[in-house]
Design a protein that fits this description.
This protein is an alpha+beta fold. The N and C termini lie far apart (53 Å). The chain folds into two domains: 179 residues, Beta-Lactamase; 206 residues, Hypothetical protein af1432 (Orthogonal Bundle), CATH 1.10.3210. It contains 16 helices and nine strands.
């Protein structure tokens, strides 16, 4: 067991670690991973406040994870619960009070809340000890609830959460609350940028870009795992890639409504103008001051390139709108990029974007059924898409389907 000094040092390191994460989805993953490390806990969940409810936003479970094949992830349904005294998480949110329970199946009759054992029953899992902590912002307003499940001793036996640890985890929850609020603000800024594009192009909705960003990260993780890329590198890249993928079509704000909203097929000249959204979007990130700027430029510029070299815009300087000399550009023509000449983040977003476009309804089309969509993705391997990326895509398809449920289109 860790000493008190070691626990304080660990909580301090964890607080510093989460402050480096900017994307809200990845932040929740990092928070839960670290707090479970602190308690040597088997499982946990995070709920975020949405209106007068708590949305089940992220969960981990080591026992259930070990039942899956290597590289596969657990899939959880997204649901919401009322903020009231009937559930443990709802009670904690309503009262902003930490609750530690040695065994959820032996609750004292005096407490107003109950434990819902439905998940345990369908998953063949046994929840026992539970610590539920409110997550608040600087104004002491509730923004979520963190639930840690089944603390373990050094031999792996389930033990109650120690009362002496509660002040430390409450302190950590305060740091986590600041990080969550900051990450939510970052996400909202990105979505506001997207809403500008949505005013011009109805296809660019918040749900669409959230799905594409989440799909892209899952496919990247699987591609990187197969490539043997270091986990530390993957974790660092995921954060900036998630946000960059959401902004893949931001250059459409510069395209005329006459083209974006034209109900008929575009002329050759109009299509050439439409293609310019790639380098116009890339130009927004030209002052490379961070890893995010670099990845966002790469994605915006390359997400319409094709593996077989038939995509666009080709080898172009996005600032000068001129062919890149020395790489085949001559006579004012942009020579195509093909194969691994296309940066990997562009190749991945190409897959994520097309998959979402095919499987989602639009004003001008119905959503393709799943079989038709997946067949098109297979047929496009080696033509439109990098075959390795397509393999990674199919390996995490179950996760992608759960993401679609998390970010549904609104009517």
């Amino acid at each position: 067991m860790m000493s008190e000094r070691e626990k304080i040092d660990l909580i301090t390191r964890i607080s510093l670690d989460i402050n480096e994460v900017k994307d809200i989805d990845l932040l929740l993953e990092r928070i839960l991973t670290n707090v479970r490390l602190f308690f040597n806990a088997d499982a946990g969940s995070i709920y975020l406040k949405e209106g007068d409810k708590l949305k089940f936003s992220y969960s981990q479970n080591n026992t259930l994870q070990k039942r899956l094949p290597p590289g596969r992830k657990l899939i959880y349904n997204t649901f919401s619960i009322p903020i009231n005294k009937m559930s443990i998480a709802g009670y904690v949110a309503e009262n902003r009070k930490t609750v530690a329970i040695p065994d959820v199946y032996k609750l004292n009759d005096s407490v107003p809340y109950t434990f819902d054992s439905h998940f345990d029953e369908i998953s063949d899992y046994r929840t026992c000890s539970m610590l539920t902590v409110p997550i608040t912002n600087q104004r002491k307003e509730i923004i979520g609830v963190m639930q840690v499940i089944n603390a373990q001793d050094d031999e792996g036996n389930i033990i109650p959460f120690l009362p002496s640890d509660e002040p430390l985890i409450i302190h950590f929850a305060t740091s986590a609350g600041l990080a969550v609020e900051r990450a939510q603000m970052t996400r909202n800024i990105i979505l506001r940028m997207i809403s500008m594009a949505e005013l011009r192009d109805p296809k660019e909705t918040g749900a669409h870009v959230n799905r594409v960003g989440a799909y892209a990260v899952e496919v990247y993780e699987e591609w990187a795992r197969r490539r043997g890329i270091a986990l530390e590198t993957v974790e660092k890249q995921k954060d900036v890639f998630r946000m960059a993928a959401m902004l893949h079509d931001v250059g459409k704000v510069a395209i005329s409504d006459l083209i974006l909203k034209k109900p008929a097929r575009l002329t050759i000249d109009e299509y050439e103008i439409m293609k310019s959204h790639t380098y116009l979007g890339a130009r927004l990130f030209k002052d490379l001051q961070s890893d995010f700027d670099e990845v966002a430029l790469e994605v915006a510029l390359n997400h319409h390139e094709k593996w077989d070299g038939t995509g666009y815009p080709g080898r172009i300087d996005p600032l000068l709108e001129l062919p890149i000399e020395g790489l085949g550009g001559e006579g004012g023509q942009f020579t195509p990029k093909k194969g691994e000449e296309i940066p990997i983040f562009g190749r991945i977003v190409a897959v994520a974007d097309v998959y979402d476009a095919l499987s989602s309804p639009r004003a001008y089309k119905q959503a393709w059924d799943e079989d038709h969509t997946l067949e098109e993705m297979r047929l496009s391997s080696g033509k439109h898409f990098d075959p390795e990326v397509v393999e990674a895509f199919f390996s995490c398809l179950d996760i992608l389907k759960s993401i679609a449920n998390r970010y549904p289109d609104t009517e």
